[in-house]
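In the laboratory, one determines a bound structure by crystallizing the protein with its ligand and collecting diffraction data. In a computational setting the workflow is compressed into a single prediction: the sequence and the ligand go in, and a structural description comes out. We illustrate the idea with zinc ion.
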Amino acid sequence: MMGAVIFRNALVLTMDDTHTVLPGTDVLIVDERIAEIGVGLTAPEGAQEIDATGGILMPGMVDTHRHMWQTAMRGYGADWTLTQYFVWYYLESGKHFRPEDIHAGNVLAAWEALDAGVTTTVDWSHGLQTTQHADAAADALGAVPGRFVLAYGNIQQGPWEWSAAPEFRDFVSRRITGNDLLGFQMAFDVTGDPTFPEKAAFEVARDLGVPVTTHAGVWGATNDDGIRLMHEHGFMTPQTVYVHAATLAPDSYHRIAATGGSVSVSTESEQSAGQGYPPTWALREHGIPVSLSMDTSVWWSGDLFSAMRTTLGADRSRMHMQAHERNETVTHVHLRAEQVVDWATRGGSRALGLDDRIGSVQTGKKADVVLLKNDASPVMFPILNPYGHVAFQAQRGDVHTVVVNGRIVKQDGRLVGFDAAKVRGDVERTVEHLIAVMGPEAWEKGMNPDVPETKVTDNPYTYTDWDAGSAQ
Ligand SMILES: [Zn+2]
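The predicted complex, in structure-token form:
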């Protein structure tokens, strides 16, 4: 599938530094890179031509935080809170995942990402109980033609334990070899314990020269103490990715901003699970860079269209609600569709230190691009406000063509090389295994948490008998 590909007559959202929009433009890809952008380009012989008329060509999207192994349980936790999630994965059942279960979930999540135009995904892989699990995760990512960053973690041990194991170092040297399609981070959380046991894991990360990604500012789990400890020990760097950062004081935001790190906002997650209100408003006030993420398909999709949409909605609804409490009206919104499209593309490439290679449609960059086009859809015209169209109108089904590193991985709305039967069979075996070890009753109960009682408010209009008069 390598060689030359030319998109003809696209509306190109370059997402370059000035957000140049190019109507009626051709984009030529040769091998791994974007070779030329212009009108009426001459294609090399044998180039594959894709008619992009009526479509939007944009950079591939970047998801900076996804627990891909959990996709094997797609939708299971739709009605969970964070508490139920922690009990299920951290305390009770996460340990039941075998290496093949990690593999099955990762493969499914990886294809799901490509299908939705997400060309780079951080696999926040915190189910790696052994390096056999880690090998399975890496094998899965290598088996799907996307760009991934393996963020290595293990919720069954303290990070100071797993990161000190010789097998972990051995895994890194065996599997992380500078392959452009597989990056690496260390993924762990900082509890705020004043003895700062996580220090040893940060030292390993520093020694290996790899970034750390951490769930920070998660209500009831991580807080300002963790940020302060990281800062005081010199572990906050421009490469650090703070996930959620939703329940933090201004002091913590100042520390993040001053050290150049970025925040991965998972709005769908924060709204449903309860890490805290999606913090885009606070990040704006503190000048902190943002990327977007979907967190986990045990609740949500792996689809950054949803992230863009919910992030706009959460930011704006908070503004309106607070204004109404002051009896005021918001006449202009801060957060724009253009901004969330930037966060879904450049925001991610910057957060991951990949901005010199991906994140925009520019000559010389790696060819990770997405064509949104769906001639049969009443939603794909008119395209008047292209950023608004991407954020509020388009969806996964409108992802026509996806190219990663110059290779077409989705074409004419269909994934290339996706063996659905094989992937489905592997995921079914994981589900069967989990039901078998937990027992069918616990499995059902886990999916259906109790509903708190709703008390219907007293209604003053029911105090009088409305038809008493007619009865006379
Ligand atoms: Zn997470």
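Residues 304-325 form the longest helix (22 residues). Keep in mind that any predicted model is a hypothesis to be tested, not a measurement.
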